[in-house]
User: What shape does this take?
Amino acid sequence: MKMFPIVFQGPRYKDHGLREIPWEMIAQFEKQAIKNHDQDLKELARLGGLCIEEVWLVIFEKPLSDFWRINWDKINAVADVKARIVCFTSQGEELDEKIQTSPY
Assistant: This one.
């Protein structure tokens, strides 16, 4: 399965263990990714991918300008993205190698 990379933001952020998501899942929202980043998914992946919050914005079809307006302490972007992956694949066992359990 082709995967889209998730960028880890660094020491300020908790390691959520999510390093990639199914390409076909995010491909459904490529128009939103282009609106948010002025680049298609292929180019975004070549540059290293998106952080989990940016992925959340894309798959929930929100503009990048919402990034600073959203209270990320109240939204669990990791859990939301993982739930979308499970719904998309409907095969939880296939994801076990790709997704580690969230540490929080």
